[in-house]
Known about the structure:
CATH architecture: Up-down Bundle
Shape: globular
CATH topology: Growth Hormone, Chain: A
Strand order of the largest sheet: 1-2
Amino acid sequence: xxASSTNWARTFFxxxxxxxxxxxxxxxxxxxxxxWLTETTGSATVxxxxxxxxxxxxxxxxxVAGVLVDRWSRRTIMIASDGAVALATLALxxxxxxxxxxxxxxxxxxxxxxAVGTFQFPAAQASTSLxxxxxxxxxxxxxxxxxxxxxxxxxxxxxxxxxxxxxxxxVLAVDVLTAVLAVGTLTVIAIPQPGRTSxxxxxxxxxxxxxxxxxxxxxGLMAILVMATAINFFLTAxxxxxxxxxxxxxxxxxMHLASLSSAFGIGITAGGMALGVWGGFRRxxxxxxxxxxxxxxxxxxxxxxxxxxxxxALATTVLAAVMSSMTDGPLMAVLQTxxxxxxxxxxxxxxxSMATAISPLGLAVAGxxxxxxxxxxxxxxxxxxxxxxxxxxxxxxxxxxxEDHRAAPEAGESEVTLTSA
Length: 421
């Protein structure tokens, strides 16, 4: 049984619903914790550090996670990841309930959540490519962007409202509940696994090196990773400082941050809907690069928005988010259709690790620079860099024609199997 079977939609959307519930809880708690840090410290450096502890696991654990995702049962990995998130959130809720919470406790919880997410994301994405027919992957990518955007729309305002009527432990409990529900959906469906031959017993480091060779032998992908590294240096820092932009530049409060986050969600959803219906240009990378230019323009305009024109900040955020869907969806569809199924866990995690390796440096200097020069500088420079990279990539054939890439399969790959393990 493969993704081409007639009942793929029932299985996939059961899986998709569980992931949606988990994502809602994650977004809700993320907003609550970021706002608590903002209110408690008011420090750009603290917020940058909070983002840093969320980035580090992806840099250092991703290569290991990729090998394990390709070796182990992907369903088991996702169940364990959701369970670990629930336990970490529950422990933090107890801290808040006992009124003993410290900033470093929040850092630790964010680190644990990011660490298990390093396993969760590639397991989910690699499973999707085996559950969905190839001709539907671009539209499913659009639906995923809609899902992500929808959660960003509803989670921040709901979080802001809940923070006003519930103690923080009550807000955190929502994440525990959604994680449990996500685990429940995973227990009732079968998740496809790529078939493996006897080389599945190959040494761990040998498989990691195979994933690295597979990735580095693809010129277009390596060019994309160089671009992503440069962009992430600026934009990861910029997004981590959004609460400071709201409070210190625009003079806003929790609901202002929630509305800005929701504007981003609206844009992500609109872009995902457009991508799901339209499907993008015939050459998927043309869609992705056009979106990248638009993302840069949105960030640039956000950094230039006067303090008295918060409505303009909302509009530019929507623009950046629409274009973000147009960037990420087609690129993921290209990877899902061109990377061998048995390699997808390793390739996706290596991409994440390599692309974000520079982010800790950006975050390390983001707080001090923002405290001295103003937070807007990160949006202006980051937006300009993003636009420049998108324009330049149109003149690099290895990037523009990425979907034509067909790498030779690694030894040991075989057909896809459907398991309930």
